[in-house]
Amino acid sequence: MLAIGIVVDELHVVVESVQHYMDEKGMFTQRSNYSCMRDIISAGNSNCVDIGGCIVPVGFIPGIAGRLYQQFAITIASLF
To answer: With a threshold of 0.85, does the pTM exceed it?
Structure first.
C-alpha cells in the first residue's frame, strides 16, 4: 500500500505540471509532457534516491521484526 501511495503521489505531481503547461502556456499534450518532464526529472530522481535511502536499511533490521520487514523493504526498493 505504501508503494502505491508513493507512485500515486509522483503521478499527481506530473499531472498537475502537465496541466499547468497546457492551461497557462497553451501547449498541446506532447509538448507539455516534454516540458514538464524536463522540469521535474531531477525532483523525481532525488525522491527515488531518498526513498531508497530510507527503505533499504529497514531490510537489515535483525531478529523477527527484521524478517517481517525484509520482504517489505525488498519489494519497495525493487519498485524504485
So the answer is: no
